[in-house]
């Protein structure tokens, strides 16, 4: 849209990247130091032999591997569920003349406002005792965690997708309806392609929120659905924290997140179809 | 234009999930908030005590102080994130070599769990063994001690929050910016508008809903921050960084004071809803109505 020297932009982003990356670099530094060196005067640069044992310990830990799988399943399932339901809900809020829809829209976000600490207890009671089908209880299951994470991710999806859907001209839907399209066709073939950048960003961010959640996972899971973030906290003990292992696990958690990011980010590109409607 | 039935049908799954996992627990918390209840205390039973918890919190100096520091924290953090995030989103709208690469780098802080962010920042800023106090005192002769100086601890939590969450603002604003139609901008350029005019009269009104939605999300997340700050400062020194989320956590977990913690949660939730509702009615709803 605007012109300027592209290499100035590159220079700016390189400098900014140093600031952005420093804490992540430091995480790596901690992960390759023996515990004793953490308490000496630090230096910015890595020197001497790197201490890879933390990584070997993490890789050999079978429990952590199952935590990793749980984290992946739960956050991917939750992100897809929230983005889909949020997209459908926003289509209804944006296109239908429903009584009280603005209140419903506002009410959804109030679910995200609750301070988490106190709500852990009722959720725990509900999931261990109330929400069950026969012998199947929601507590400590992946599906249970996917549903619980909706309390903060679904409102988020609805609030980030609403501006996107409101920005897509209604004339496009109406033209499609005139041509005899069903609502499902309109949603999947007219609105969906235009909402793609917004959907991609929502998918990434809901995934990240679910991937990083800690308090709920720590309370509502025991073993079967335990996630990586809770695995991390198991190294914070009363006798001291094993920072090296913790940092090594943290570095591992970055890898799947990076893969998901690079897969989804490609869809954040301008939709070209807007020229179809002249204002 | 369409049958109302279809509209509600599209909303139904969302409403059902939020009712089961949002409203039902809230009713429970509301119920507990009218009781004196410490399951691990001298008397583990739930005792109904009318509005006793609420009467207590109005005079609880620690709680009132935590409301004040939370407001300051939210204000400084969210305002900086909005300005920075918008500037960076605009910068990423230009074409330059390696754009996708830098965008990914810039989003990396987001993929770190708050509990990890808190730990790393704690290790970086601990006096005498952290890298940042060392650099600051060796190169600039500045003393950073977040264990003692209240305002330094406060500033560090704000900077940590900015580092962690600016990418979220950038990403949501990029999504809004790339969805803008090109026509108005081309027309304005033909008409000879300068960049500032284009920003105030075209870009800003068009992405206003996205900006407000983002500010809302960031505001309410900042208000209930727990893990990061708990890891970094533990709420101290004194109560300099004892934000309401941290305050409630400390009331519920180490002290298992469920009745009182529930009352504080209900009030904090109520205050958050009121603040957000006023902003919503004042800023967002008029625009939606105008559009019909």
Automatic annotation (TrEMBL), chain A:
<dbReference type="InterPro" id="IPR000515">
    <property type="entry name" value="MetI-like"/>
</dbReference>
<feature type="transmembrane region" description="Helical">
    <location>
        <begin position="199"/>
        <end position="223"/>
    </location>
</feature>
<dbReference type="GO" id="GO:0005886">
    <property type="term" value="C:plasma membrane"/>
</dbReference>
<comment type="similarity">
    <text>Belongs to the binding-protein-dependent transport system permease family.</text>
</comment>
<keyword id="KW-0813">Transport</keyword>
<keyword id="KW-0472">Membrane</keyword>
<feature type="domain" description="ABC transmembrane type-1">
    <location>
        <begin position="68"/>
        <end position="264"/>
    </location>
</feature>
<feature type="transmembrane region" description="Helical">
    <location>
        <begin position="7"/>
        <end position="28"/>
    </location>
</feature>
<protein>
    <submittedName>
        <fullName>ABC transporter permease subunit</fullName>
    </submittedName>
</protein>
<keyword id="KW-1003">Cell membrane</keyword>
<dbReference type="GO" id="GO:0055085">
    <property type="term" value="P:transmembrane transport"/>
</dbReference>
<feature type="transmembrane region" description="Helical">
    <location>
        <begin position="243"/>
        <end position="264"/>
    </location>
</feature>
<dbReference type="Pfam" id="PF00528">
    <property type="entry name" value="BPD_transp_1"/>
</dbReference>
<keyword id="KW-0812">Transmembrane</keyword>
<feature type="transmembrane region" description="Helical">
    <location>
        <begin position="72"/>
        <end position="93"/>
    </location>
</feature>
<keyword id="KW-1133">Transmembrane helix</keyword>
<feature type="transmembrane region" description="Helical">
    <location>
        <begin position="143"/>
        <end position="161"/>
    </location>
</feature>
<dbReference type="InterPro" id="IPR050901">
    <property type="entry name" value="BP-dep_ABC_trans_perm"/>
</dbReference>
<feature type="transmembrane region" description="Helical">
    <location>
        <begin position="113"/>
        <end position="131"/>
    </location>
</feature>
<dbReference type="InterPro" id="IPR035906">
    <property type="entry name" value="MetI-like_sf"/>
</dbReference>
TrEMBL record, chain B:
<feature type="domain" description="ABC transmembrane type-1">
    <location>
        <begin position="63"/>
        <end position="279"/>
    </location>
</feature>
<comment type="similarity">
    <text>Belongs to the binding-protein-dependent transport system permease family.</text>
</comment>
<keyword id="KW-0813">Transport</keyword>
<feature type="transmembrane region" description="Helical">
    <location>
        <begin position="63"/>
        <end position="88"/>
    </location>
</feature>
<dbReference type="InterPro" id="IPR035906">
    <property type="entry name" value="MetI-like_sf"/>
</dbReference>
<dbReference type="GO" id="GO:0055085">
    <property type="term" value="P:transmembrane transport"/>
</dbReference>
<dbReference type="Pfam" id="PF00528">
    <property type="entry name" value="BPD_transp_1"/>
</dbReference>
<feature type="transmembrane region" description="Helical">
    <location>
        <begin position="198"/>
        <end position="217"/>
    </location>
</feature>
<dbReference type="GO" id="GO:0005886">
    <property type="term" value="C:plasma membrane"/>
</dbReference>
<feature type="transmembrane region" description="Helical">
    <location>
        <begin position="162"/>
        <end position="182"/>
    </location>
</feature>
<keyword id="KW-0812">Transmembrane</keyword>
<feature type="transmembrane region" description="Helical">
    <location>
        <begin position="100"/>
        <end position="121"/>
    </location>
</feature>
<protein>
    <submittedName>
        <fullName>ABC transporter permease subunit</fullName>
    </submittedName>
</protein>
<dbReference type="InterPro" id="IPR000515">
    <property type="entry name" value="MetI-like"/>
</dbReference>
<feature type="transmembrane region" description="Helical">
    <location>
        <begin position="7"/>
        <end position="31"/>
    </location>
</feature>
<keyword id="KW-0472">Membrane</keyword>
<keyword id="KW-1133">Transmembrane helix</keyword>
<feature type="transmembrane region" description="Helical">
    <location>
        <begin position="263"/>
        <end position="285"/>
    </location>
</feature>
<dbReference type="InterPro" id="IPR052730">
    <property type="entry name" value="Sugar_ABC_transporter"/>
</dbReference>
């Amino acid at each position: 849209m605007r012109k300027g020297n592209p290499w100035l932009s590159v220079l700016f982003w390189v400098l900014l990247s140093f600031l952005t990356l420093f804490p992540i670099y430091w995480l790596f530094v901690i992960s390759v130091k023996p515990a004793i060196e953490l308490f000496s005067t630090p230096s910015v640069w890595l020197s001497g032999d790197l201490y890879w044992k933390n990584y070997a310990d993490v890789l050999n830990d079978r429990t952590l591997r199952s935590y990793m799988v749980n984290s992946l399943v739960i956050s991917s399932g939750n992100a897809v569920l929230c983005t889909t339901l949020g997209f459908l809900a926003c289509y209804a809020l944006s296109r239908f003349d429903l009584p009280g829809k603005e209140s419903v829209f506002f009410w959804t976000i109030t679910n995200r406002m609750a301070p988490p600490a106190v709500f852990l207890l009722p959720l725990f009671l509900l999931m261990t005792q109330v929400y069950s089908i026969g012998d199947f209880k929601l507590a400590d299951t992946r599906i249970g965690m996917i549903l619980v994470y909706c309390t903060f991710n679904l409102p988020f999806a609805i609030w980030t997708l609403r501006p996107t859907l409101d920005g897509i001209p209604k004339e496009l839907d109406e033209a499609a309806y005139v041509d005899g399209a069903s609502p499902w066709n309109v949603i999947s073939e007219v609105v969906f392609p235009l909402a793609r950048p917004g959907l991609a960003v929502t998918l990434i961010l809901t995934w990240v929120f679910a991937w990083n959640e800690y308090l709920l996972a720590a309370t509502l899971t025991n073993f079967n659905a335990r996630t990586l973030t809770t695995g991390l906290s198991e190294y914070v003990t009363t006798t001291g924290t094993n920072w090296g292992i913790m940092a090594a696990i943290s570095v591992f958690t970055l890898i799947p997140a990076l893969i998901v990011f690079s897969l989804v980010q490609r869809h954040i590109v301008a939709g070209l179809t807007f020229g179809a409607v002249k204002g | 234009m369409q049958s109302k039935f279809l509209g509600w049908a599209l909303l139904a799954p969302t409403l059902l999930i939020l009712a089961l996992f949002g409203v039902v627990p809230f009713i429970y918390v509301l119920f507990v908030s009218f009781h004196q209840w410490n399951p691990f205390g001298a008397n583990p039973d739930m005792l109904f005590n009318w509005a006793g918890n609420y009467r207590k919190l109005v005079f609880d100096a620690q709680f009132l102080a935590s409301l004040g520091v939370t407001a300051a924290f939210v204000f400084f953090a969210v305002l900086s994130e909005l300005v920075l995030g918008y500037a960076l989103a605009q910068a990423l709208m230009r074409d330059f070599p390696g754009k996708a690469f830098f965008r990914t780098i810039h989003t990396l802080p987001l993929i770190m769990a708050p509990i990890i962010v808190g730990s790393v920042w704690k290790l970086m800023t601990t006096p005498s063994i952290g890298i940042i106090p060392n650099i600051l005192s060796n190169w600039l002769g500045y003393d950073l001690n977040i264990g003692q100086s209240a305002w330094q601890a406060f500033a560090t939590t704000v900077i940590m929050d900015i580092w962690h969450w600016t990418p979220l603002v950038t990403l949501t604003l990029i999504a809004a910016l790339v969805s803008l139609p090109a026509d108005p901008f081309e027309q304005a350029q033909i008409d000879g508008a300068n960049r500032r005019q284009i920003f105030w009269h075209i870009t800003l009104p068009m992405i206003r809903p996205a900006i407000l939605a983002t500010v809302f999300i960031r505001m309410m997340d900042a208000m209930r921050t727990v893990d990061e700050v708990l890891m970094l400062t533990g709420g101290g020194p004194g109560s300099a960084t004892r934000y309401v989320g941290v305050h409630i956590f400390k009331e519920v977990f180490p002290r298992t004071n469920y009745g009182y913690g529930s009352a504080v949660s209900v009030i904090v939730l109520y205050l958050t809803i009121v603040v957000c509702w006023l902003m919503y009615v004042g800023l967002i709803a008029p625009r939606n109505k105008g559009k019909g």
